[in-house]
What does this fold into?
Amino acid sequence: MPILEVDDIGVRFGGVRALDGLSFDVDKGQICALIGPNGAGKTTLFNVVSRLYKPTTGTVVFDGTDLLSVPADQIADLGIARTFQNLALVQGLSVLDNVKVGSHARSHGGFWSCALYFPQRAEEKRITAEAMEMLERIGLADLADHPCSALPFGTLKRIELARALASEPRLLMLDEPASGLTHQEVDELGDLIRTTTADLGITVLLVEHHMAMVMSLSEKVVVMDLGSKIAEGTPAEVRDDPMVISAYLGAPA
It folds into this structure.
């Protein structure tokens, strides 16, 4: 059964049609990639699902809930987390504190109230322990007290992943996680995403331009161009699709 159902989504910005009748679904526990040339509408779709954008047409259903009726500040409560193309870590905080921000997305107290020991000391202790457990899972526990500002870019990408996972999502939306990484770092991050989400039973919606990662990591691929879906299937099926080749290479379809 699908956990995410996107049906006939359209988004317009003035006269610009960013999404046009986009429909697809993602099964529970599946890793589904959205690919397409720049400007295809992939990040726009992410912003619709995370409620940053309101579509002009269509519906989005997450595990039986009409997502478009849910306020943006309640998306995390439903079990949806995302990363961004550009790192959104707080550089002045330690690695541990950045991961704790993810845990606070589902806590009863805010980050600063807990950090300053107002009424939530017991909850802060629990959150700290859970954040450390997540850092251990991704192999960064030894950097817990280091400031993020002093760490290399590839490590920061893994910290951002840990922060998203710390919110205990059922759907994890990854927006170009391989951007800016070396080939070795891409392979390591892909393995980490695959094993961690499988262990935790998390569904993944992935936007990525690094085709090696897409083809090795994804179980399903949705190909977009100019705001519309032009192909859908397994990596092997979409790789040889004439419309996909045309969209990427400019060859006749």
Observations:
- The chain is about 40% helix and 25% strand.
- Residues 183-200 form the longest helix (18 residues).
- The mean pLDDT is 90.
